[in-house]
Amino acid sequence: MVEPLRYATPQQAEEMARMAEQMRTTLSRLAGSEVGYDATALQLLDEWIERAVQRTPAPSYRSRLTWASFLGEVLRRQYNGRWCIAALEGHGDTPALSCPTAEGALVTIDIMGEVERRLAQGIASPLALRVIALRIELQSGGHQDW
């Protein structure tokens, strides 16, 4: 369960956006053309993560945070989300995103948890597919925390 503690400060949100932009630049190099903050980019991120895990089975916190920043920025832009700092049982503060549903409720998305799930379950749990499930949740007005 994710509980929002507070919205990210402007500086924290800027740092997440900066790291996301670094990842976007890296993915653009991988693709050989400019990559946006969209579903195609998430497929590239899944590919990037898969390659990274093959080289280093336990990626650094900084790498995981950069991937989470990119995922979060894609979602923030697509779903009018807002960066926040959330608490996870036993894990302390973690970057999260608060997004409105079609009915106006807020869904809190554990961005770092999504990356951790992707790492634990491998390519069988791609981020691109999780985002499709999230889109359905937001459009249906659901309010399940992710």
Question: What proportion strand?
Answer: 15-25%
CATH level-two architecture: Up-down Bundle
> In the CATH hierarchy, what is the class?
Mainly Alpha
What ranges have pLDDT less than 50 throughout 5 or more consecutive residues? none
Distance between the termini: 8 Å
CATH topology title: Four Helix Bundle (Hemerythrin (Met), subunit A)
Rg (C-alpha, Å): 14 Å
User: How are helices and strands ordered from N to C?
Assistant: EHHHEEEHH
- Principal-axis shape equals globular
Please outline the major beta sheet: 4 strands, antiparallel
The average pLDDT score comes to 89
Question: Which keywords apply here?
Answer:
5 helices, 146 residues, Four Helix Bundle (Hemerythrin (Met), subunit A), four-stranded antiparallel β-sheet, alpha+beta, globular
Give a quick rundown of the structure.
With 146 residues, the protein is an alpha+beta fold. The chain has helices at 10-31, 39-55, 61-79, 111-121, 127-139, and strands at residues 2-7, 82-88, 92-100, 106-109. The protein has a single domain, classed as Four Helix Bundle (Hemerythrin (Met), subunit A) (Up-down Bundle).
